Predict the 3D structure of the following.
Amino acid sequence: MSEMKKIKNLKEFSTSADRFEGANLLCPGCAHSIIVREVLNATNDDLVLAASTGCLEVCTAVYPYTSWDASWIHIGFENGSTAVAGAEAMYKALKTKGRLKQPDRNPKFVAFGGDGASYDIGFQWISGCMERNHDMMYVVLDNEVYANTGGQRSSSTPIGSSATTTPAGSISYGETRNKKDMMGIMAAHNIPYAAQVAPNKWKDMVKKIQKGFATEGAVFINAVSPCTTEWKFDPKDTMHLTDLATDSLVFPLYEVIDGHELNITYRPKEKDIVPVEEYLAAQGRFKHLFKDQYKYLIKEWQERVDANWAYLNRREEARV
Amino acid sequence: MANTGWDEFEIGAMLRTFEGEAGDIAATLQEDRKYTENSSFSASVADWRIEKPIFAKDYCIDCQFCWIYCPDISIISRDKKMIGIDMDHCKGCGICVEVCPTNPKSLLMFPELADEETEIAQWPAKEKKEK
């Protein structure tokens, strides 16, 4: 076991040498690369990375360029998780047989996928990886839409969001189904560690990532990634949107250990909690909800978020 | 790079980011790395920008918020100090300006053709807090 990288404060963290390069083709203000940087900089160990098809993959591996300074592979839309699981299985086998060329190194296995690749297309494969408990980490960059292909709805798209396949208009308020509870499903695999993170709370995020790296077994991370193009806000407001998501409790930050021990890791003070309305108002994809016809949906949103928060609090207390 | 044919790359499109050994890359800063022309570090997205950030060092408190929240690895921090902006990789999103906590801000956005020295000379004064 190699030593954990010490990150006490942001100044110390800023001495990290990035292993993700600029001049990738992600949109200006995209949160994907902020998340990727926080994950990669959390360790100094070697990395074995994969990405499922999605914004991150197409933008960081534009032939003949690569933006990755670590071994990185892309295969298909669905199998970022199993590509890494396979590498991990091979690593374990070679280790057992004593055939590793550098046995003292301690590589970390990480797969990235968007919400389309994780919630929908690669769902079965991730489930398999979690069930077999590979020593790997799966990171979802959850921007709640198929942003790469033009903004079709995914099963992560929340109610009321206008996507290209669920457009809002005079007879429709956009997406009608609620967001899939991926964290709940993954935690139900009884994996050692599952956590929800947001890039604006970098300390919380790095702590969870390091905890994930230290954990032996499968780790699932769900990271909120505001999308300037599909959520329709100004690129400079990415961090503001992430703040709204965590402070309105639309995207609560918590972790689940061994499938039952739930800890809420970020609890905004009562006076700092922002109404969900503010979060919705900041995004163009919810613009139509402020018409009289659909205003009742905002109230429903608030009730749903409150109910979810109460549920998480009860789970934390009950330890079940 | 633009003149390299499709059949001149390795099979499976395996791209190497570095020349020679890269065993200790996590401890090697960008200026000490031997990038190949396949690394996007060798490319530039400077022509994406309409506005560019200008950094006024005098007001900076080295909090590193801009470093952590920069999506394009364009804030150069060395020895816990913010020392400048990598203009080849900055796309001009403006996140660094938004997260800058100083008063006045030590990073501001200006039109791409603005002159750095002139703008720093007429940097806005400290804003008074509204009571």
